[in-house]
Write a structure and sequence with these properties.
mainly alpha, 2 domains, 2 strands, magnesium, two-stranded antiparallel ribbon, Polyprenyl_synt_CS, globular, Farnesyl Diphosphate Synthase, disordered N terminus
Length: 340
């Protein structure tokens, strides 16, 4: 078993009102953890050590949790549910190794990142290895699952390329940003719920409802992090408030502020600061943060997040009123509360 600690659903806003559902989901996640450890083992000790690095650091395991929850709209006992949970988590872990190289990150999940410990080349190769292991496990789920996993991988890559390259010529910056989030974050979360529905034996309509819910929720969750980075006085997002602003990351409130045509002094001043790029000067950073917190852009971003959360909830309509649906609805409540 992994030495890491899997965080509870509460860390992502998931509330289990039904103890039997929670017990069943946690049992599935325990089995997923076993498959994960077995899947990353290699004849090469260095590959095993590096591949287990983030696995042992723990994590939310949100994507396998979604697989397990979605399967509870049908029969969650199938072995394929566990294997599907491993596929999506291996894919997610692979992206983290690559992301840390691109972001030059020093820490991941409270531990030194793989790239800071072993160098960029090895971190990239281990990410590739984890993608390969995900594909290998997917073959045990059948051709349809392989096709879905492959398509998801393609969307992940396109999202990363779009983020790196920036908006296409003539493309609206906000539309581009939302497209990136849909591809980079929403796609794998959507596949997690789709797999759960598929291998739980749900109907085609229920599977599509689950996939739509999950992608929409994933976008809402990522966007809500944008707001917390600006609005929170604490480290609620796991980062110092205003980190994205300091690093020049164009999050939704910033994009709305830059696109604003408001001609009041505060809006003009905010656009002036933001248009210069990363806000690294401490005084300017504090000023920009204050202006953003009081801006119409932040209100507009909150409305956007609530809109996605509402659409996610509405997409659950075709699903039966079972404890798993109550659990998924709790995610929407969490998003609405954390962005107020």
């Amino acid at each position: 078993m992994s030495t890491g600690t899997v965080q509870s659903g509460a860390s992502v806003g998931l509330t289990f009102a039904d103890p039997a559902l929670e017990s069943s989901v946690m049992a599935i996640l325990k089995d997923v953890e076993t498959v994960l450890v077995e899947s990353v083992d290699s004849a090469n000790p260095l590959v095993t050590e590096a591949a287990r690095h983030l696995l042992n650091a723990g994590g939310k395991r949100f994507r396998p949790m979604l697989v397990a929850l979605a399967a509870h709209f049908g029969d969650p006992s199938a072995r394929e549910v566990v294997l599907a949970g491993a596929v999506v988590e291996l894919t997610h872990l692979a992206t983290l190794y690559h992301d840390d190289v691109m972001d030059e990150a020093a820490v991941r999940r409270g531990a030194p990142s793989a790239n800071s410990r072993w160098g960029n080349s090895l971190a990239i190769l281990i990410g590739d290895y984890l993608f390969a292991r995900a594909a290998a496990v997917a073959t045990e789920l059948g051709l349809d699952a392989v096709k879905i996993q492959s398509s998801t991988f393609s969307r992940l890559v396109h999202g990363q390329v779009a983020e790196t390259a920036g908006p296409l010529q003539g493309e609206d910056a906000i539309s581009h940003y939302l497209r990136v989030i849909s591809q980079k974050t929403g796609s794998l979360i959507s596949t997690s719920a789709r797999f759960g529905g598929m291998f739980g034996g749900c109907s085609a309509e229920e599977i599509e409802a689950l996939a739509t819910f999950a992608e929409t929720f994933g976008i809402a969750f990522q966007l809500s992090d944008d707001l917390i980075d600006i609005a929170s006085e604490s480290t609620q997002s796991g980062k110092t408030p205003g980190t994205d602003l300091r690093e020049g990351v164009p999050t939704l409130p910033v994009l709305y502020a830059l696109a604003s045509g408001d001609d009041d002094a505060a809006s003009i001043r905010l656009r002036e600061i933001l248009s210069a790029g990363p806000v690294t000067d401490d005084a300017l950073h504090a000023e920009a943060l204050t202006l953003l917190r009081e801006s119409a852009a932040l209100k507009q971003a909150r409305e956007t997040v609530r809109g996605y959360a509402d659409r996610a909830r509405a997409s659950l309509a075709p699903l039966p009123q079972v404890p798993a649906r109550v659990a998924l609805e709790s995610l929407c409540d969490f998003i609405a509360d954390r962005t107020n």
